[in-house]
Amino acid sequence: xxxxxxxxxxxxxxxxxxxxxxxxxxxxxxxxxxxxxxxxxxxxxxxxxxxxxxxxxxxxxxxxxxxxxxxxxxxxxxxxxxxxxxxxxxxxxxxxxxxxxxxxxxxxxxxxxxxxxxxxxxxxxxxxxxxxxxxxxxxxxxxxxxxxxxxxxxxxxxxxxxxxxxxxxxxxxxxxxxxxxxxxxxxxxxxxxxxxxxxxxxxxxxxxxxxxxxxxxxxxxxxxxxxxxxxxxxxxxxxxxxxxxxxxxxxxxxxxxxxxxxxxxxxxxxxxxxxxxxxxxxxxxxxxxxxxxxxxxxxxxxxxxxxxxxxxxxxxxxx
Length: 319
Description:
Structural class: mainly alpha
Number of domains: 1
Distance between the termini: 49 Å
Number of helices: 10
């Protein structure tokens, strides 16, 4: 029996340790670790981009820096994410945008690539920060509930604190509810409609790009659209948006006759990896949110259970 339970216990302990690493908010990690991860992520992205073949050097200059920025923002929050974003912007501009070894001026393609990189990273960092803020608010509620359980007088005479998700006032309650809600709290139809709408807007913007850059940056507007679809709707709508962007870009903007298989493979591969990294980051944050919500609900039910317990006891006999 012990030989069977030993590996099972070790697996549970390993799973618990991994869970403690992944399913926590950035504030529970040390500041040094958060910025070190950001620097390492940008360094790895630079190394991967630097060893790309010369025929690809003028295409997709920021491709590997986008997932590095998202990873830094997921692990460390907005500050480390901003550091990774600025580092990727400077490295991509200096090494991979013409003229090389110089910071500007940029060509039309360079301005488009820089603009979309900036919008994509800032949008991703902002959406991740919204989830970090929501989870931090739940952690604060759990801490207050635990202190009150240990000391019933805790917070009795204190002014009620507004949570970070609701401190915007009465006029912005609706907006706050939309921004800080998780996909499970939104209707299924709205989640898929938003995904389809986001991909449609991404396709329209990409279709309007001039012919000069039509064979470059095929997925440039689909990536932020898919980011938004995954954040709003979760994995299912995100996969729909991801597949739709892949099909539309492949049919309209990737030309096999004029583009080598290496370039096609790199474009599709980096698009897929970036979207999957974003999906995994959000799913980990949603898992953290579900864990915190469960703990909050458990702590809220504890006083009720304590009050009901004496009533459930059988009557004691007299004398």
